[in-house]
Amino acid sequence: MLFLAGEAGVIDINGTVIVELLTFLVMFGLLARYVYPEIVKQAEARQRTIAEQLAAAEKARAEADAHLKEAQAKLEDARKTAQGVIDAATEASRKEIEAERDRAIQSVRGEVANLVVTATEKVIGETLDASKHKQLIDKAIDQVGRDGGTG
Question: Which residue in 131, 121, 105 sits closest to 139, CA to CA?
Answer without folding.
Answer: 131
